[in-house]
Structure formats: structure tokens, C-alpha cells
Automatic annotation (TrEMBL):
Pfam families with a match to the protein in the record: SCO1-SenC
Database matches in Gene3D superfamilies: Glutaredoxin
Keyword Nuclease: no
Annotated transmembrane regions: 21-39
Keywords recorded for this protein, A-Z: Membrane, Transmembrane, Transmembrane helix
Presence of keyword Heme: no
Family: Belongs to the SCO1/2 family.
Taxonomic classification: Bacteria, Pseudomonadati, Pseudomonadota, Gammaproteobacteria, Cellvibrionales
InterPro entries according to UniProt: SCO1/SenC, Thioredoxin-like_sf
Protein known as: SCO family protein
Amino acid sequence: MSEEKQLSPTAKRDRGIRLTVLAIVSIAIILVGGFFYAFTRARVMTMEELKSQGAYLYENPRLLPNFTLENDRGERITPTTFQGQWSVVFFGFTYCPDVCPTTLAQLKAFYLELDPEVQADTQIWLASVDPARDTPEQLHSYLDFFHPAFRGITGDFLEIHRFATSLNIPFTKVPGGGSNYLVEHSANVALINPKGHSVGFFKAPLEISKMKRAYLSIREYY
């Protein structure tokens, strides 16, 4: 005789109850899991909503021009370097008295707020607007103070200028000052997507909570 026929009516009833309860629990787990995913997943904001968070996206992503620079480890930097990850790029310099250390401290706070899997494909960059003084070694030592994962960019002035212009980040050397000259530059922070395209920027002054919400939303676009 089959197992089904050997079961008593009471056993059959209990087995049916167990199967029903199991089915209900399974459905509940699926529904709760779906709700939790929808709740935790970043909501895609409209352009206007992003602006309210301090993020400005271009209507069309912009290709980076050809350039050759180097990072704080002396490694070659080209447009292809920015492919395969999200890049948050701040243009500043190590001799900057206030804006640069403040912004880098904010970027550190922003970076530490990200979940590990988001951190893993988010690179924070300091691109020097003072390449004459900001050697790779100088940049490396400076950035290590903020976060060891942060990378620097330096190199030929014209190449830096071409890169900054493509990201809509202006800068200019302040006349005079001798060897202690300053460089005026935008405090906006540029954003490059994993395809290596400039997609927009975060407007200064940065607000960490808003920047994080906007960044997670922007990631859903691409």
C-alpha cells in the first residue's frame, strides 16, 4: 500500500495543515522580502528632485576628451581609467587652506555612509589644479590623511585643464603670491559613470545626507 493510503484520517488532516501553513509562510516570506527590497532600494528621483538634493545631471552624458595624467601612485591615468566604476571627482590642491580639506572631509563622511557594495565601485578622486607643486608623492601623503582608498590625479597643466573643462570645473591661478600662490577653483564635485561619461555634478556646499540620496538615485539611471 502507498504511504498516502497508510495514513490515518487524523494524520492526513495534520499533514494537510502543515502543508497549508508551509505555503502561507513561504508566500509571506516572499512578500516581506519584496517589500523590504522595494523599501531599501533607492528611488529614482526626477531631475527637479535631484536639484533639490544638490545634484545636477546633464541631459546627455558627455564623453571625456583624450588626456594622459598620473595618479598618486605614479600610475598612468587616461579616460579608460574611469570605466567600470563610479567616480566622484573633486578638483583642488594640497596647499589649499580651507575649501579643499573641508570638502575632502565631507567626501570622507559621504564615502563612509555608503554600504560596502556601493563603496566597492565608488572611487573618490582629488584632481590637482596645482600640478606644479602636487607631485604624486605629495598627493598620496595628503589623501592618506583623509582615506587610504582616495586617489589623486596630477600631471601636465594643460592636460589637467582639458580634463577639468570637460567636467565643467573651472580654475585659475591667483596672480602674485610668489611661491605661496593660491588657485581659485570651483568646489563643485563632478560625477563620472561606469561607462566613463561625465553625467553631472554635486553643487557646493555639499550636504552629506542629500548627496547620498541623490547619488544612490543617480546610480539607478545607468
